[in-house]
Amino acid sequence: MSLLSVRDLSTEFQSGGRWLEAVSDVAFDLQRGEILGLVGESGCGKSTIAYSVMRLLARNARIRSGEVWLEDVNLATLDEEELQDLRGRQISMIFQDPTTALDSLFTVGHQVIETLQEHLNLDPAGARQRALELLRQLGIPAAEQRLKAYPYQFSGGMSQRIALAIAIACHPQVLIADEPTTALDVTIQAQILQLIRRLLVDEQGTGVLLITHDLGVVAQVCDRVAVMYAGKIVEFGDVHSIFSKPLHPYTQALLSSLPSKGIARGRLENIQGRVPGLADRPSGCRFHPRCPQAKAVCRERVPPLKQVSASQEVACVLYD
Amino acid sequence: MSSTTNGGRPLLSAVGLSKYFSLETGLLASLRGKAATVKAVESVTLDVYAGQTVAVVGESGSGKSTLGRLLLRLLEPSAGQVLYQGADIFGMNRARLRAFRRQAQIILQDPYASLNPRMRVGRIIREPLDIYGEGSKAERQKRVHELLERVGLNRNHERAFPSELSGGQRQRVGIAAALALSPRIIIADEPTSSLDVSVQAQTLNLLSDLQRDLGLTYVFITHDLSVVQHISDRVAVMYLGKIVEEAPTETLFAEPKHPYTQVLFSAIPLPDPSRRMNWDLPKGEPPSPLNPPSGCHFHPRCPQAMSACSHTVPRFQTVGRDHGVACLLYEEGVN
Q1: What residue numbers bound the domain in which A71 lies?
Q2: CB contact A42 to B (< 8 Å)
Q3: Which of A287, B119, B162, B252 has the CB geometry, 3.0–4.6 Å to B115, for a possible disulfide?
Q4: Is this prediction's pTM over 0.90?
């Protein structure tokens, strides 16, 4: 059984009296001890998937259909009390801005220790001991003093380490990381990614759903990747296959628009036009108006995600 | 682009440029006897030749944005000069400064924050022309249309508010406004950092086209080394207020000398899963610019630090053709 299994998830937002679909029929499995990357540009729905799985959607959003199985529990049907019990203990989340997870009025120690006491039924001394252990594991120097400090006294990188400490305090099986290193400098980003990869995934067997716009981050730490465009997964598979042989024209375009070391100075490839808004998503394949290989049929047919090799699935009529 | 040192005088130079910010003022600071000072930019010397792009690369707190603002005199320096065609911009009177400012413009990172949300796009682009009293009203209007087209927008965008545009389109509006007065040099401060990769590619291509067609000179401030290779002729790497290495782009990418530059390269997540990083990362975080380490500022994080590094300030010196580095590893008689 997969650790986390998302089935035909559709999530919509209310805007001006209409419900607009942000995520359409998305399905994927997350296994123990793997990092699954969910990659795409702004507005593709990748964060909406995270918030749907966590059931943390804003008031103007709702899951229209679909199931979210955490082992044998369907999160999509739980009530708030049942969810509270699972969040943190079984499934946790960290965000792009780590300060959103921290309360500026309390010391960091208070917040970490409180989480531990609540979820693990530890006495104050035991919780404090565990908090110190966690901070050290996460590479926070002078952990004793740091527990007494307030969030504003922490750099972005340190705040993200603290948010990560709180998120993994109860050894959740699943961690959802929504652009966890986007706001950090590259040397700090590398440190945080290393922590997630080594400590969480390789040592503890946590399953991580990593949401990012950064294809470099995906290539460096993910095992498998789902490429999203306009609310749908257009390509899915093993990270090596997708980077060495991208099949979907969107994945191809995205990879060739990257500036990277080893490519001489010159023009970058780019994708014509812009990502469509929720209200004006095209018919058929949603990428067809921007696709250099579009055919007449692409305007009408919605291509399903189809297995084309042992390690790759793609949603494109070119592979029918 | 043109060769690195094309014999002539640089268009813009920083000479021994420093900017210190005093953090605490008032009673507490005076009781303590001294105000805390951040040396945001310290003794920076940099030449920018006409038609070239010089990239200034660094992480948060490196002082790269402060340097950008000093180059346009949006800040007054604590020491040093900025020479534009040989004249110190800090010694200019109002009239000459005004003349300088029409030739030197800035593009900012966040097109969401840098455009006035209450102004329509046409007015944002026209504003510099209005301020400088360029031409008749009809001529200004014509110029706005030219500029919109030049940056890949059209007349339909003229009546739009910034909120109605995408991030990439807003950045184009920022670029059009910067171009309005036909400047010779543009300081671009993280112009593509908040954009998606495909939009980033469009914007970088636009900046290259504009440089080719209009003969522009760029100072390109960024934290992203992977962007640098596509846009710049020279690169200056900053760490805690100082330039630690400067070289032609190709040289820097082929042979980074400073351990910090090497660390920066190794931390870039390459979009290639077959070349995963070895995770030999620098320990710790960049120290606070309030209390920078003695000697070489990088020594506590440096994988190659020697005992001398904690007390000797390295001199910036030449190590190859147009290649300078400030590191004791390359200083004779120290190691």
Answers
A1: 4-222
A2: yes
A3: B162
A4: no
